[in-house]
């Protein structure tokens, strides 16, 4: 009889704990932004003729820069991703804002690129051979005997 009265509250606690684990606050998929969050109002403030200092005040420091001859480009990348609890990451959208400057540091143009503007690049998997033999850690230990 005592066992039955003790096991009922324990069973109720287990059911409550199980239901609490199934709430939406512990979602299996989380959404987040990697890189910059680029608001539309900030993009509207960037106009030709403005200085690099003003662009830095509005958008912040660029994530990447590039120089072609007399022109310089600053890149701001925003990537919205979904990540599962199991570590799988899926890219929902990617926006790249490129701000182009002349040799005097004044804005010439700006461009907004999305995932559809990108090209897939295959990465070379071949390795440059090194001198000697590539040995694993275990091989090195066994060879020392």
UniProtKB/TrEMBL annotation:
Annotated signal sequence range: 1-20
Keyword Secreted listed: no
Keyword Flavoprotein: no
Tree of life domain: Bacteria
Domain Outer membrane protein assembly factor BamE: 35-108
InterPro entries (alphabetical): BamE, BamE-like, BamE_dom
Keywords of this entry: Cell outer membrane, Membrane, Signal
Pfam families named among the record's database cross-references: BamE
Protein name: Outer membrane protein assembly factor BamE
């Amino acid at each position: 009889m005592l066992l039955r009265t003790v096991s009922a509250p324990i069973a109720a606690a287990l059911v409550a704990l199980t239901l609490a684990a199934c709430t939406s606050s512990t979602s299996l998929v989380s959404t987040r932004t990697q890189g910059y969050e680029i608001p539309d109002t900030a993009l509207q403030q960037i106009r030709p003729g403005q200085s690099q200092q003003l662009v830095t005040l509005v958008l912040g420091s660029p994530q990447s820069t590039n120089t072609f001859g007399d022109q310089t480009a600053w890149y701001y990348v925003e990537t919205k991703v979904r990540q599962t609890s199991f570590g799988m990451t899926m890219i929902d959208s990617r926006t790249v804002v490129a701000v182009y400057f002349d040799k005097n540091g004044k804005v010439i143009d700006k461009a907004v690129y999305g995932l559809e503007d990108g090209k897939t690049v295959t990465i070379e998997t071949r390795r440059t051979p090194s001198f000697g033999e590539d040995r694993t850690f275990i091989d090195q230990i066994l060879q020392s005997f």
